[in-house]
């Protein structure tokens, strides 16, 4: 009688069956890839900014041309190294960036890194407040639009989203200043704080440059209210731009979630539509919001140039406009490179958060 090889029978299918991938390994690989992508992204942006800044010639000639004679320009160009081949200047610039040296401004001979540290906190504060406005307006209205889908309220919210996204930021800022600053007198129309509050914050031992924190450190509620009131109109003007995007994203995803099988099953058991919206459709609709926050940070930083100029909010956008006007391309390069690094790092952090929220996000 022949015997059956039970070992090969039992082990054959098991050996052929693929082993499930570990979730931790998948996340680690995803994290590594996303981190490594930061470097080529920054490298490409730095390269593009460098060569675009050289399309009008060397920075010395661009900033001082017409003010100095040819001999003086030649001396300055030679002293700064701008008379060397462009490719040599490019690799030298990359080497400086790796050491944290962004160069010095041509108009004031001030280290660019000092400019970034001086004006950066103001832009960070404005972007933070703008995100609060975007979340506080876009997400609730997106939920309401989904709840009243295909009704008059839904149409109104969708039109508002389009208007907020399409209207130029400087025009929205001017309207807000006219209505709420001049006509109604509710909010200040320029600056980050009144002169009195700035003087009081400057007396702090170690001011941070973030006026909200500095105002809290003074212990004077009047200073804090003054700082917050100055931030309202700029934050609304810039935040509504992103609020329109969030509104449409939330509406679309909530409507899609409300059409899934498990929501239909809950609806068949008599669960109210408002409860379905809060308990079942709200959280899944936030996942796309998280994934696009990095892109919205880039949009807000770009919009900060016009917003800060309109409201005389002395941040990176405000000083960038001044450097562009004076054709100080060394300072412009430094500011743009810093903003590019911030956007790249923000996207990296957002990708990690999105991977934690939604396990399906993997490479």
Task: Describe the structure using short key phrases.
single chain; 363 residues; mainly alpha; MetI-like fold; 2 domains; 76% helix
Description:
- Helix content is 76%, strand content 0%.
- With 363 residues, it is an all-alpha fold.
- The chain folds into two domains: 26-107 and 326-363, no CATH class; 113-314, MetI-like fold (Orthogonal Bundle).
- Helix 2 (23-36) runs antiparallel to helix 16 and helix 8 crosses helix 12 (221-258).
Quick rundown:
With 363 residues, this protein is mostly helical. It is 76% helix and 0% strand.
Taken together, the total number of domains comes to 2
Are there runs of 5+ residues with pLDDT below 50, and where? 1-24
- Give the CATH H-level superfamily of the largest domain: MetI-like
Helix fraction?
Answer: over 70%
Beta-strand portion reads: under 5%
The CATH level-2 architecture of the largest domain is identified as Orthogonal Bundle
How far apart the termini lie comes to 53 Å
* Radius of gyration over C-alpha positions, nearest whole angstrom: 27 Å
Question: At the third CATH level, what is the topology name of the largest domain?
Answer: MetI-like fold
User: What overall geometry do the principal axes of the alpha carbons give?
Assistant: globular
By secondary-structure content and strand pairing, the structural class works out as: mainly alpha
Q: Given the structure, what is the number of helices?
A: 16
């Amino acid at each position: 009688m022949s015997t059956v090889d039970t070992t090969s029978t039992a082990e054959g299918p098991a050996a052929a069956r693929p082993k499930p991938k570990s979730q931790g390994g998948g996340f680690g690989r995803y994290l590594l890839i996303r981190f490594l992508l930061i470097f080529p992204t920054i490298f490409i942006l730095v390269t593009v900014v460098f060569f675009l800044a050289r399309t009008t010639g060397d920075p010395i000639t661009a900033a001082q041309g017409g003010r100095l004679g040819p001999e003086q320009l030649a001396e300055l160009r030679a002293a700064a190294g701008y008379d060397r081949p462009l490719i040599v200047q490019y690799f030298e610039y990359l080497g400086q960036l790796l050491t944290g040296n962004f160069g010095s401004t041509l108009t004031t001979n001030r280290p660019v890194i000092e400019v970034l540290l001086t004006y950066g906190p103001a832009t960070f504060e404005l972007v933070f407040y703008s995100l609060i406005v975007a979340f506080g307006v876009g997400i609730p209205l997106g939920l309401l639009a989904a709840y009243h889908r295909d009704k008059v309220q839904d149409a109104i919210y969708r039109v508002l989203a389009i208007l907020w996204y399409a209207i130029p930021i400087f025009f929205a800022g001017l309207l807000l200043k006219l209505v709420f600053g001049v006509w109604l007198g509710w909010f200040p129309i320029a600056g980050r704080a009144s002169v009195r509050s700035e003087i009081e914050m400057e007396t702090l031992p170690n001011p941070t440059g973030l006026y909200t924190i500095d105002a809290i450190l003074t212990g004077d509620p009047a200073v804090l209210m003054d700082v917050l009131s100055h931030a309202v109109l700029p934050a609304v003007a810039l935040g509504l731009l992103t609020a329109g995007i969030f509104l449409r994203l939330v509406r679309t995803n909530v409507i899609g979630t409300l059409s899934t099988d498990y929501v239909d099953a809950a609806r068949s058991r008599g669960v109210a539509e408002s409860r379905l919206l809060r308990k079942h459709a709200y959280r899944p609709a936030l996942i796309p919001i998280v994934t696009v926050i990095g892109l919205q940070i880039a949009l807000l930083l770009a919009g900060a140039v016009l917003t800060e100029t309109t409201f005389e909010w002395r941040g990176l956008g405000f000083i960038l406009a001044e450097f562009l006007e004076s054709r100080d391309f060394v300072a412009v390069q430094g500011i743009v490179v810093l903003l590019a690094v911030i956007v790249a790092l923000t996207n990296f952090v957002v990708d990690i958060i999105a991977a934690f929220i939604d396990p399906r996000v993997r490479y």
